[in-house]
Amino acid sequence: MKRYELPYAQCRPNPETLTELACPVCGALLERYSYTKEEKVKLMLRCSIAENRRGKCKEVAFFEGRDGFWSPKFGEL
């Protein structure tokens, strides 16, 4: 039996993934997001509003580094 899932744009972020840092473009909170690259689990911060991530905030991505989070466009946090 298939479960109904909300459309991607209507999904709300899990409150446990939200940080206290603001998105540099829209001001919404950044969320922690896990992904796998080259068989390693990595962590990044991104805008918590799904609709904005596909539009005006699509370049908001802070990657985890040795000294905290950094972004190619926005620098270090």
Please provide a written account of the structure.
The chain has 77 residues and is mostly beta strands. The protein has one domain. The chain is 5% helix and 43% strand. The protein is built from one helix and six strands; from the N terminus they run E-E-E-H-E-E-E. The protein has one helix at residues 50-53, and strands at 18-22, 29-37, 40-47, 61-65, 68-71, 75-76. A six-stranded antiparallel β-sheet has the order 1-2-3-4-5-6. The model has no long low-confidence stretch (mean pLDDT 88).
Outline the secondary-structure elements.
Elements lengths: L17 E5 L6 E9 L2 E8 L2 H4 L7 E5 L2 E4 L3 E2 L1
Antiparallel strand pairs: 1-2, 2-3, 3-4, 4-5, 5-6
State the major sheet. 6 strands, antiparallel
Counted beta strands: 6
Gyration radius over CA: 13 Å
Q: Given the helix and strand composition, which structural class is it?
A: mainly beta
Task: Give the total of domains.
Answer: 1
Defining traits:
77 residues; mainly beta; 6-stranded antiparallel β-sheet; 43% strand; globular
In short:
5% of the residues lie in helices and 43% in strands.
